[in-house]
Specification:
It contains 5 helices and 4 strands. β1 and β2 form a beta hairpin. The chain is 78% helix and 5% strand. This is C4-type zinc ribbon domain-containing protein.
Amino acid sequence: MNGELDTLIKLQEIDFLILSLKQKLEIIPLEIKNFEKKMQEIDRQFENENKKVINLEKKRKEKEIEIEDINDKIKKLKEKTSQIKTNKEYQALLKEIELVQENLKKEEENLLLILYDLDEAKKVLKEIKADIDARKREIEDNKKQLEKEIDITAQQIEELKKERKELINKLPSELYEEYIELMKKHKGLAVAQVKNSVCQGCFLHIPPQLYVEIKLNQSIYHCPQCGRFLYYKPDKKLEQAQVQTQ
């Protein structure tokens, strides 16, 4: 194969790799942000469940104080019985004590409901916490892996750039400039393979005589339509079949 053509093909392969790795570098931070977003959502979920427990704890304390006040009230009312002088006042006081005791019973039942809800909420919170811890560990591991990939990818790009520089030194400056122009013009594809007489860059059918010359890979040819450098890559399976036939 023509040495300059071979260099152009290798240069194109390296530029493809660099482009692909750079795209990967652009995507990884977005994936890390997604993981961070998931972590924030998980934290919010836990916080919401935790708020339920805190509110129920608050209700429990308020209810306990309320019940304590009612008990104090009953105690004071009972202390008054010794001071009552008439039966009418006594009956009225008993009635008042009865009403307060009924209220006490009602509030004690409410306290039991709060304690039940609190117990259930704590169980749910405990389950969510265990699930959250597992999911956080998984997300954190994925995030660290992606951060590690950034370093590896950046290192790969640097190594490819060194190889690229060595290849550029093998090309005449005008040929390299033409390569760069074609890269800009065709979004990164300056060197295209010709397969079955078709340019794989713009899919033009290459004229028969030109195709015969391109297949030799002995000179640099351009696509008549898109202007890309063209090369031919022999089909190994076809070659093997031809050898076996012979």
